[in-house]
Amino acid sequence: MITPAAASASALPRTWGVAPFTKVAMTTIVIVLGLGSVAAIVTGLSLAINDGDSIGLVIGAIGSALVLGAWRFGLYPSVTATTDGITVRNPLGTTHVPWNDVVSVSPGYSGLEITRTDGTTVIVSAVQEANAAAWLGRRTRSKLVAAELMQLAAHAHGDPT
Predict the structure, then answer these.
(1) What is the pTM of this model?
(2) Of the chain's two ends, which shows fewer C-beta atoms within 10 Å, N or C?
(3) Residue (of 160, 145, 1) closest to 81 by Cα position
């Protein structure tokens, strides 16, 4: 449950990453793909030196690209609340939204949606809402994070709530 103390500026910086289950699953995928890629590269080097066959190197390179993608899309995303605003770290870039530019924060299937004063939206892919949870009206991690970020924005705007 979010309390005013949890959403106070003294608790900053505060960072949320991907959900714990996602973190475990993606870490497992990264490790398995990484080990497979290393094995394919080592085998590929041996085949390339002995037989001139480079298929193992190609498979190793593809596996390495998959490892990088799994890490970047599955483990890298985060959102951090600081005294200056919200820093969103998504797979393809980082965006900083100052507190005075935050109009609303709401959970969504693609991630939290931060609406800015100019009407644009910044998506936070690290904190996503499951469709079933939204349909059933369940209190979820994404709703808790959105509520806490809104409390911090209100605090930064001078609203004591």
Answers:
(1) 0.79
(2) N
(3) 145
Give the C-alpha separation, 43 to 60, whole Å. Answer: 9
Each domain of the chain, given as residue ranges in start order, spans 21-74, 84-156
HSE (side-chain half, CA atoms, 13 Å) at 40: 18
| Distance from C-alpha of 111 to C-alpha of 124, rounded to nearest angstrom | 5
Q: Omega before 4 cis (within 30°)?
A: no
Distance CA 119, CA 46 (A): 57
Which amino acid is it at 117? T
Q: What residues form DSSP beta bridges with 53?
A: none
Place of tokens 């709703």: 143
What per-residue confidence (pLDDT) applies to 35? 93
- Which one-letter amino acid corresponds to residue 91? P
